[in-house]
């Protein structure tokens, strides 16, 4: 099953994330991914999303993780309510 999720990059105490489409069975950290769809830096609030490719992967059947889903709703790529992540 395909999933759109965050893959951590960056140094210790300086997180930065790639948004990737990958198979669910691959490890989230340092696993191979199908395609890179953008990035997000929570410290500087910088983010870049490739909306066309994200919509393509969603149409093919990929499921976004809860955090990625909330990011997509906030940026306007998807419509809907945010998922509470606790």
Separate helix tally: 2
**What gyration radius follows from the Cα positions, in whole Å?**
12 Å
Q: Widest sheet: strand order?
A: 4-3-2-1-5
Strand content: 35-45%
Large-scale geometry: globular
Distance between the termini: 24 Å
Summarize the structure.
Helices cover 23% and strands 38% of the residues.
What does this structure look like?
- The structure is a single chain.
- By secondary structure, the chain is of the alpha+beta class.
- Helices cover 23% and strands 38% of the residues.
- It is built from 2 helices and 5 strands.
- Strands 4-3-2-1-5 form a 5-stranded mixed beta sheet.
- The chain is globular and about 35 Å long.
SSE blueprint and pairings:
Elements: E1 2-11, E2 14-23, E3 35-41, E4 46-49, H1 51-60, E5 63-64, H2 66-75
Parallel strand pairs: 1-5
Antiparallel strand pairs: 1-2, 2-3, 3-4
Describe the structure using short key phrases.
single chain; 86 residues; five-stranded mixed β-sheet; 5 strands; 23% helix
